[in-house]
Amino acid sequence: MLNNVYIIGAGETKFGELWDKSLRNLAVEAGLKAIENAGVYSKDIDAIYGANGLAGTINEQENIGALIADFSGLSNEGIPALRVEASTASGAAAVREAYLSIKSGEYDLVVVGGVEKMTDIHGSSILEKMSSILDREWEAFFGATPAAMAALIARKYMNDFNVEKEALSMFSVNDHLNASKNPDAQYRNKLTLEQAMGATPIADPLNMMDCSPISDGAAAIVLASENFVKKNKKEGVKILSSAVAEDYLSVGSRESIYTLNSAKLAAEKAFKKAGIKRDDISFLEVHDSFSIYGLLELEDLGFAEKGKAKNMVYDDIKLNGRLPVNPSGGLKAKGDPYGAVGIGQVVDAYKQLMEKAGEGQIKNARYALLHNMAGTGASSIVHILGE
Amino acid sequence: MTELSRIWRETEYRYNLIGFKCNNCGRSYFPPRDICPYCHRESIGKMEKVKFSGNGEILSYTTVHDAPPAFKRQVPYTLALVKLDEGPVITAQIVDCDPDEVNTGKKVHMVFRKIREDGTNGVIEYGYKFRLN
Ligand SMILES: [Zn+2]
């Protein structure tokens, strides 16, 4: 195929409560790390895609594309810079737009960055802003929060498939264990099953240890065309496929409340285009903003039958298991800076596939599947990386 | 602060539980939508307003402990997915009962209640909640 697309550099900030860093500080820090890692210069850059979910409401700053380009020192060159918004899947959406821009032949080198600065707002007001990832007028208006919607899904799922709370908690335990090996992760403490089960209730059956934290952070990657890679003798990881699919915005409108149809459709398309099988996948990064989603994703991405993900959470998903899940620490422990998440997944997968993941390195990692999801599953974006 | 018109334009639906029925395939919808996702353009002009009975059953529920400022005074409250007798599944609070009484499959009916307050000086917003039968 013409115009294969490669990831040739990646970088990210630490994820967490970064009081001393602003939205623009974070974006620039991640961008520079990626560019340095790729060994490219500003003259090489054809375009920038910036991902962000909520800067308009949290930081009261729109115009994110221009802001990133400006404070990266690229205004004199007039390099195109656009923001991509797809709620909590903004990151992967930007990766996909950048991928398409190279695939089309228009560009040879594109920088993709994602940023979210979530701690700039006081107290529980952040929850009001975060609830904008739901249907504002018909879910959030009536008292729904992202956690409450996940809890509604979890309760019915647990009832119908006889799944114990422990299975959900194990997903968070695995995230924390993996994050303990990731220096960029927000929470590097190991979590015991007892701690995970006994945490403060948020929206039962979900407690605080089932919910991703509020995070600041940024991540960036450099994508290049096959031409650029050959001409400049770069090494990289190939993007084998990129796919996106939508579902109803509100949970109640979906035929099955515990089926992530968008994930199902996106995964099917991604595997078809990549030309590999599920058995070929070395590890997954999934969008577990709430532990329940981790289990649903294993099922709907096609790695377990409906209701059976509980059988994978004890051993299979571990770093040395049959199918490692969230070697980065996932959204629960690495962190959940909305617009940066999807690109952070690529940063980690790039390191794994280049065998530069340090302590958390998976042996013989060849292919990665990344799933970044918007809201409660309204959009799903799947990328398969490898070679 | 929210402009009144934003609330006013939805009051018909929120106060009376009015949704839409597609007269091409017969499916009912809530929240209101202009196009049937099964019939697409065949449904244009055939979506008719219907008032739902307000009867339904609890599909799933949760007790919310962590809420945005507009709901702080109501914490903890019970939120549910209610499957209306006419088909649509809606997100709403269950009120006037002990949280322990709430369970999947229980029959409920709609009541008209205060939903939220937009700060101390803003509008008080009203709409549907549900009670156990
Ligand atoms: Zn129809």
Explained architecture:
The complex is a heterodimer of chains A (387) and B (133). Chain A is an alpha/beta fold. Chain A folds into two domains: 5-122 and 215-238, 3-Layer(aba) Sandwich (Peroxisomal Thiolase, Chain A, domain 1); 125-207 and 240-386, Peroxisomal Thiolase, Chain A, domain 1. Helices cover 35% and strands 18% of the residues of chain A. In chain A, the strands form two sheets. Chain A has a nine-stranded mixed sheet with strand order 3-2-4-7-1-8-11-10-9, with helices on both faces. In chain A, strands 5-6 form a two-stranded antiparallel sheet. In chain A, a hairpin with a 4-residue loop joins strand 10 and strand 11 (379-386). In chain A, helix 4 (90-103) packs across helix 13 (338-353) and helix 7 crosses helix 11 (291-300). The mean pLDDT of chain A is 97. By secondary structure, chain B is mainly beta. Chain B has a domain at 53-132: OB fold (Dihydrolipoamide Acetyltransferase, E2P) (Beta Barrel), CATH 2.40.50. Chain B is 10% helix and 43% strand. Chain B contains one helix and eight strands. Chain B has one helix at 4-16, and strands spanning 18-22, 28-29, 47-51, 55-64, 77-84, 89-95, 107-117, 124-132. In chain B, a hairpin with a 5-residue loop joins strand 1 and strand 2. The model of chain B has no long low-confidence stretch (mean pLDDT 95). Chain A binds chain B through residues 123-125, 127-128, 131, 135, 137-145, 147-149, 151-153, 155-156, 159, 200-206, 248, 250-253, 257, and chain B through 10, 31, 37, 59-72, 74, 77, 79-81, 88-93, 104, 115-116, 125, 127-129. The structure holds zinc ion. Zinc ion (ZN) binds at residues 22, 24-25, 27, 36, 38-39, 43 of chain B.
